Amino acid sequence: MLLRTAICAAVLLLCQPQAAQAQEAPRSVLAEQDMAGRIDASIAPYFKADVPGATVIVVKDGKPVLRKAYGLADTAKGVKMTPEMALRLGSITKQFTASAILMLAEEGKLSVDDDITKHLPDYPTRGKKISIEHLLTHTSGIASYTGKPGYMAGMAQDMSVAQMIDSFKNDPLDFEPGSQYRYNNSGYFLLGAIIEKISGQSYANFLEQRIFKPLGMRDTYYEGFGNSKAPVAAGHSRGAQGFGAAKPLSMTQPYAAGSLVSTVDDLARWDAAIGAGRLLKPSSWKQAFTSYRLSDGKATGYGYGWDVDKVQGETSMGHGGGINGFSTYALRFPEQKVYVAVLTNSDSGPANPGVVARKAAGIAIGKPYREFKEVALDGAALDAVAGTYEVEKGVQRVFRRSGDGLVMQRSGRPPVALKAASANEFFVPGALDWFAFQRDAGGKVSAMTLHQDGNALVHPRTGDAPAGRQAVKIANASFDSRVGRYELRPGFVMELTRDGDRYFAQATGQGKLEIFPMSETVFFSNDVDAEISFEPAAGQGFVLKQGGRTIPARRL
After folding, report:
1. What is the DSSP secondary-structure string of 41-110?
2. How far does the chain reach from its first CA to its final CA, in angstroms?
3. Which of 51, 65, 173, 203 has its CA at 20 to 30 Å from residue 83's CA atom?
4. Residue 17 phi/psi, 5° resolution?
5. 275 close to 289: Cβ distance less than 8 angstroms
């Protein structure tokens, strides 16, 4: 030590750079610790110790900045969540399926422009060309099997690939292939079948041998086919008595659309491999991360297994997943070299993994989301911002005073309760969007700005808020004559039911909504901006009025 000091004293100028470097490393470590602390402080309030939780990883410049677990892995047994636990990914699976397709394309075994009948010759396309690219981008028009009537009742049954395809292949197309974007699990199921047909391997084995093993993803697997030693978190759903076990699901059914299990560590390995250009050529990765354009030239915001979006104004690729017992979200920022994965073991809260991932990412990329604190406003202040604001032709956002708060409702969507941060700023609790109201020289509100993921969208005030709908009392016998099933389009049915003095409507693949009578022939919901009207012209059916559209429904 003395000798080193003497030498440094003699050649001070040469030793100073070393001293500077030695000082820089601790500053870098402190910066990472500070970022980890800020991320943790921002997302920890979304989780509680005695309910289902999450595993979270935030990677920046190839190094984990935050790797942490929250809440419980199993509420029945009181087991705490730990970062190394494995959870279902849900639809994050789709990016692995898409990558497998691109691997086969690079080998010349298929083209994304191929008609699917080239590889699945028995699939009925009704004279339309449905390409592999249509399947990858949710633009095929094929009906999604998870939205079919009665799907939930049979989801625990084991099915072969052929049986599952038979369950939806004869359904009419929802639209002309390539003309619309509609998220679709059937398309990715078919991609799995194509992978098996071309490779001669099962979907599970192909991913294991071609992706997971080469990348060292030891704890990622098709559920039911893995040899991982990672502990697995239990899935939960929220019920009347709190959180309990999720409903059973045979993993033969999500298949290539959502069957994978993984850990946040393995997902970080996956992203590192993408960043290093492994598995695929740069041109193929670029293709996967490019928004598909419909036949009219409109961008869909979806590539091959990834959403292509902006988060706080920065380009990102990501995807969420929702499957029995689990909700997930993962985001990558190639320019900032940031990756975030949030895996939760509940399909019904308490945390929204997409919100958690975005909040963590905002801090990691240096563009944190605003944090709000609620303030109390009097009725006059709330009335001042209430009104109708134009989003685009035929679409409005209506703000109404509701008790001591404010409620916003966009055309065709459910109402959202807002909290006040000031007389001119309101935020959505548990979300990231917020609204700022602008006033003219006289102090009267003239416009509203929606702040959403780094974008500021200005909407002019066009008038007062319309009067709210009022429910009236009708005889249950009157409603009973309406009880039944009504078809809005092939494969999409709405069922009206009564439970005591309460009336309900439930559409295919959706939850049950309570509806209220405005008269014996017109009903509305407080959860969506829609009306059901039994008009004489509808015969035995009704007319659904929603989002500026009028949709007739015939009684079945």
Report:
1. HHHGGG--TTSB-EEEEEEETTEEEEEEEESEEETTTTEEP-TT-BEE-GGGHHHHHHHHHHHHHHTTS-
2. 91
3. 203
4. -60, -40
5. no
